[in-house]
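Worked Example 4.2. Consider the chain below.
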Amino acid sequence: MIRPDITAYRPCVGIMLLNAKNQAWIGRRFEKQNGDGIGKWWQMPQGGVDDGEDLKAAALRELYEETGVTHASFVEESPRWYTYDLPEQLIGNSWGGKYRGQKQKWFALRFEGQDSEIKLIVPGHKQEFDEWRWAKLSELIDLIIPFKRGVYVELLKDFGHLGS
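Applying the procedure from the previous section yields the following C-alpha cells:
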C-alpha cells in the first residue's frame, strides 16, 4: 500500500542515447534494487532535476555524470511526462523520504563520439553502473527493473520510431 502522506513525485530527466545503429545505451545497476539482486537490472541514464534547472541542461548534466559522454545532440523530447511509483519498501527511504516515485521527462540524443569516450566513473560523481552496452529498443523492457517497466513501455510508444 502506498503511504498516503507521501504523494509527491521527484522531477527527473531520462536520456535515450542512440548510436549510429539506432541502439540505446544501457547501464547495469550494481547495487541492490528492491531486493532483486546485484547486477541484474539495466537502465538508460536518468536523474533528478535541480531547482530552476532547464530540463535539457539537466539531461546533458545527468548524461555526463553517469556516462562521461559529452558528444551528443538532441533528437527529440518526449511529448509528455511519465511517472512511476517506488516499491512500497523503498517509499520513505529513497530521496530523503520525500517522494513516492519519479515524474520523468525524456530526451532522445544522438551519440556523436566514440565508444572510448564512455566512462562509468566520472570524478566527483557517484558511480551508477558497473557495465554498459548498446541494446536494441526491443530488448529494453525485459532488462529494466520491474517497477520502472511501465515507463519504458510508454516511452517506447513515443520514441520507438527512433530505434532498431
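The chain has one domain: 9-162. DSSP finds three helices and seven strands in the chain. Compare this with Example 4.1 before moving on.
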